[in-house]
SDR family oxidoreductase
Amino acid sequence: MTTARTVLVTGGNRGIGFAIAEDFLAEGHRVAVISRSGHGPSGSLTVRADMTDAASIDAAFTEIEATYGPVEVVVANAGITRDTLLMRMSEDDFTSVIDTNLSGAFRVVKRASKGMLKARFGRIVLISSVVGLYGSAGQVNYSASKSGLIGLARSVTRELGARGITANVVAPGFIETDMTAALPEAQQADYKRSIPAGRFATPSEVARVVSWLAGDDAAYISGAVIPVDGGLGMGH
């Protein structure tokens, strides 16, 4: 039986984040979700915060700590996209994606580390993407933000690894979400042909890897990048 922990999932109101929150709840953990809108799964505590605002994130943590105690597991999943080709990409298209996806993860990890250092225990899981290492035309901003999470996790590992804190990255490929369902059928078929597994993943397949990394069995894994992409990126 895994020890019950206080878990925070950012962007836990839909898609992969929602599935991750559900999975932790099913394992008996105390789960809080940070989102700008919508709600986490039934049984979770939903807290409003803006990933680009450190004071807002601090307030969210204070609320979670008052209800559930110190955050022991952080899953940084919140992210946005502003896809367009490099030549058309504005400064704002680039900086806003970096500020939410990468700087937002930094803000959350920094705030969580206070309690983790005190407890000499912590699990940090950053949700990257296959495009963070594989690249993707029209996603210079997004792939840069997702690649940056790897450097973040590895530096945190070197700083905090001796205090019982791990930091790892999960890099999903194509997942069955509202976003992929909205793609034209021909495009979906095209993507599936490029994936050795021949299909998209379910959100729960990503969630299972995240909860394993956060659990007692993965205590000696840190600074790792685990692809959940059906072989698309081949661990690039």
